[in-house]
Amino acid sequence: MSIDIIIIGAGPAGMSAAITATESGAKVLLLDDQPTPGGQIYRAIEAAGDKQATILGPEYMAGKPLAQNMRSTNIEYVADASVWQVTDEREVGYSSNGQARLVTAPAIILATGAMERPFPIKGWTLPGVMMAGAAQTMLKTSGLAAEGAIFAGCGPLLYLVAHQYLQAGVKIAAIVDTTAKANRLKALPHIPGALRRWDLLSKGQKWQSEIRKSGTRIINNVRALKVLGDTKAEGLSVNAGGTWQNIPSDHIFLHQGVVPNVNLSFAASLDHDWDEQQLCWRPKTDQWCGTSIDGVYVAGDGGGIGGGLAAQASGEIAALGSLAKLGLIDTAARDSKAKTARTTLRRELSIRPFLDTWFRPSDDFRVPTDDDAIICRCEELSLKDIRDTIEIGLVGPNQLKSFCRAGMGPCQGRFCGLTVQELIAKQTNRPAADVGYYRLRPPIKPLRLEELANLQIEEDENIKF
Asked: What is the pTM of this model?
C-alpha cells in the first residue's frame, strides 16, 4: 500500500500522531523497536493489570486507552523494527524479522523519545550497575526488582522509581541525592510557572514523604560518588559534606535526568540547537514540529523533554501539521483541531524551567574528574584516555573520534556524546554549543551484511512486507 506518513517510535508521541493522522484518512506506517507499543513511559502497558496499577500509578495506566485506540485504527504497525536510516529525501531504512527494507513517504515524524543522560563515575560499567530507567523497565516488563538497591543521582525519575519499588514491597538500601543546594535558590524565579502544575509538585512531595516514612536512608548534598568493587558492584562510596562513607549493595541504579534521543535526527542531517537549560541538543522545530528538512517532523521528548502528556500533545500537533502539508486537511481544520493539544502542551511545559533548574546535574557529575572513570563504554576509553587525546590539539568530537575511536562503537555515541562534548568544552575553555556533536552517519544501528544484501526497496510507492 502507498504510505502518506511514516512515524518512527510508538511511545505517547508516536501513537498520538498515528491516531490523529489515521482519523483524517492518512495511510500510516508506524515503526517501533520494541515488541509492544508504549515507549519507555508506557512500556508493556497493554499487559498491565491491577497489580501494575497499584505499583506504577495512574500516570502509567493512562497509556492503556492510548494503546488500545492505536490498535483499533487502520495503522500499519511494525514492532521490533530497527530503524537505521532516515534521509533528506524522506527515505527510511529499517530491519524487522531479519529483513531490511527501504520505504519512502511524503512525510516522516520522528518520535524517538528520550534517553538517560550519561553518568560517568568510577565503576559505572561494573555488573550490578544500571540506570534507573532500566530498573523501571524490569519492573514494568517482568515485575522484577532488586532487593536492597541504592538509587543515586538527581531528577524526578529517581524518586518515582524508588517510590514504585516501595509500592512493590521492595526494600531500598539508600537514596543518594546529588542535587546541588545552589539549585534551589536558582529555581525560585520559576515557581509561578511551576504552580500551573501544582499537582505534580504535590505528587513529588508525597513520594519523598512516603520514602522517608518507610525508613529508607536518604543522603543529600552529595559531592562525589564511586562504585565499589573489582569484578562486580559491591557498594557505593559517597562523599557528602566532605566525608566519605561506604554503603554496601550489589545493585546500584544511577540517574541524572533524561535528554532527547537525537542520534536519528543528527544522522538525518536535521539542524539542531544547544539547549542550555536542559544541557542537551534538540532539533530545530517550528510551531508544527517541522524541521529544517521539508516533510520531516520531530514530536515528543526527542524534540525537548516535556513528559508523557506533552509528548502526546506534540505528536498530535506534528500529525496535524503534516496532514495540512499533504492536503488531507485544510489549514482552518488544522488550527481548530490543534487548540486543545496546544493548551495541553503549554500547561505541561510550564513546569519544565523549574524542574530543569532544580534538578540540573552538577558539573562534576556531567564532566567527571576521576581519571579512571570510563567515558566511552563501547571502546573502554577512560577520562585520562580522552584528556590525553584532547591535549594533542583536537577541537571537536569528530577529530577525537578519528584519533581514539570514542563514539565509534555499537551505541554510536549515545553513552558518551554529551560527556565528550562537555569535556572538550571544559578543556579548551569554550562553550559546549561551539564544540558541537558527533557527525553521525547511517546505519545508526547495527545492520547485518546479509540484511543489506537482501534489501527490499519500495517500488511504485508500494511497501512490500
From this structure: 0.95
